[in-house]
Amino acid sequence: MLKPWLALESGADPAERIGAVRRAHEAFLTEGAIAAPVREVIAASWRRSARASVEPDRLAPVELDEDELAERRATHPLARVMPLFRELLGAIAEDGAHLLSVCDEHGRMLWLEGHPQLRRRAEAMNFVPGARWAESSAGTNAPGTALAVDHAVQIFAAEHYCRPVQPWTCAAAPVHDPHTRRLLGVVDITGGDHLASPHSLALVQATARAAEAHLASLAPAADAAPLLEVLGRDEALLRTGPGAPVRLGRRHSEILLLLAARPEGLSGERLALELYGDRDINPVTLRAELSRLRPVLGPLLASRPYRLTARVRTDHDTVADALRAGDLPTALAAYRGPLLPASEAPGVVRLRRLLEDRLRQALLVRRDPALLDGWVRTPWGEDDLQVWEALAGALPPGARAVPAARLRALRDAYGLAPDASGEPPGGDATSPQRPGA
């Protein structure tokens, strides 16, 4: 049986397969049905591309200018393994038949290397540095699909969703931060039909694993701030170096988050208010919690007022910074769920609601179908009536069946009257927030 990530089984005729898949592709575009010999990983990607309203004749958009590209290259973690990529895949990039590319976690191509003649050919489909090759922008393709499914994959010829890319075949593998397992980006080789072989997929997989091993061996920057992970988890993780992270208890998670959010420090009275609200709490209770936390933090924790002696960065900061920069895709990619969701500490609840409200507001204003779809597919967004309304309004009429059905179910569950306007749901940023928010 053909492995799902490989394009061709042994002995298959590439030309025959191309013809069959091209016919299936056209049938999907006209009728919406997908039949053999289309692999399930490709069928799922075509459906995602259609939901994102990707036009089948479009080119990948170029999002980064020269200055932005240079800055992204200089600061991106994968810059540290580019020499390794060149060492392992350099021969491929120089043989005149292949291209080596590296994209960031959002599908934006940062590096492209290979024979100048082949690179000129690739320019016709905007396979160039600075272009965005995420599925939501460029349809099914190896870098974008590898990022979408977080797995190495081959995309063969007519399996590409967009026709300008169908003369090419590519294989790509995701690369993760070895300490946090955060997705950093993807390494890809692109060329002709000969890449539809187990060897090419195994090669990019091995290269990605080698890159992760190399990143694990590198010492962190001397001035790297400790990282506190608080999104989507009830107990925070504190990372202070290459070793195993420290898992904090729930109260200690709240204290460290509140102090990280207020670098100027908090008085004992104010910290108690942020933690316990108006409850009558003996001051000894807070001092006891801080005493138990001090051996974990050491000299990082100071008093009078209670404060951190060095910066502690949080994943909450990563999302907030991306929102301030107007980079909604990065903010959503970094958002792993509500901040300390089990916490009822007033200061934590305020930070949690503020961040979620800012994210949702940005989503509703931007009205990007792919981003809206990504939100409602999460545990924290699956019942978000307002975002479902925005998604239905942002999709073309033929693609509204799923959100329309979900809207009917949510309205019924919330005891709301069905939308009798006859118009697509608007989902604008001024409509009431979802029930229960």
How do the helices and strands line up, and which of them pair or pack?
Blueprint: H1 14-31, H2 40-51, H3 66-75, H4 82-94, E1 98-104, E2 109-114, H5 116-123, H6 135-138, H7 142-149, E3 153-156, E4 169-176, E5 183-191, H8 198-217, E6 227-229, E7 237-239, E8 246-247, H9 250-261, H10 268-276, H11 283-297, E9 301-302, E10 307-308, E11 313-314, H12 315-324, H13 328-334, H14 346-366, H15 369-376, H16 385-394, H17 401-413
Parallel strand pairs: 6-11
Antiparallel strand pairs: 1-2, 1-5, 3-4, 4-5, 6-7, 7-8, 9-10
Helix pairs in contact: 4-8, 12-13, 12-14, 15-16, 16-17
Throw out a few tags for this protein.
GAF; alpha+beta; GAF-like_dom_sf; 437 residues; DNA-binding; OmpR/PhoB-type_DNA-bd; Arc Repressor Mutant, subunit A; Beta-Lactamase; disordered C terminus
What does this structure look like?
- This protein is an alpha+beta fold and 437 residues long.
- It has three domains: 14-217, GAF domain (Beta-Lactamase, 2-Layer Sandwich); 222-358, Orthogonal Bundle (Arc Repressor Mutant, subunit A), CATH 1.10.10.10; 367-437, no CATH class.
- Helices cover 45% and strands 11% of the residues.
- Helix 4 (82-94) runs antiparallel to helix 8 (198-217), helix 15 runs antiparallel to helix 16 (385-394) and helix 16 runs antiparallel to helix 17 (401-413).
- It is globular and about 80 Å long.
- It starts with 13 loop residues before the first helix and ends in a 24-residue tail after the last helix.
- Mean pLDDT is 88; it is low at 421-437.
